[in-house]
Amino acid sequence: MSYISGARLVADEQVRIASTKMDGIGPKKAIQVRYRLGISGNIKIKELNKYQIDQIEQMIGQDHVVHWELKRGERADIERLISISCYRGIRHQDGLPLRGQRTHTNARTCRKLIRK
Fold this sequence. Notes:
CATH class of the largest domain: Mainly Alpha
Family: Belongs to the universal ribosomal protein uS13 family.
Keywords: Mitochondrion, Ribonucleoprotein, Ribosomal protein, RNA-binding, rRNA-binding
Main location: mitochondrion
Number of helices: 6
Organism: Hevea brasiliensis
Oligomer: single chain
């Protein structure tokens, strides 16, 4: 079991599939990272040596926004919406759906917090 950028990677998966488990890395970015490092397509995580894992972590850390940085950015965006008191910010603050969904009969889980 390897950890890269805070994500736990399963040892029996291919590198391109396992690296998509990291927040912010999709299939296309996973293939790009693998290609730039010269790692073959069918190699599995357990077959990588420590140097290759360090290279992957370094490249992802330099070029891509992942894991905590990504979550921090999302939270900052939500805080900005709340601070300017726009419609979406108010809905975030109240815990209601943001994108025009019906709340009269649906959205029970988010409305449960309001009723108490």
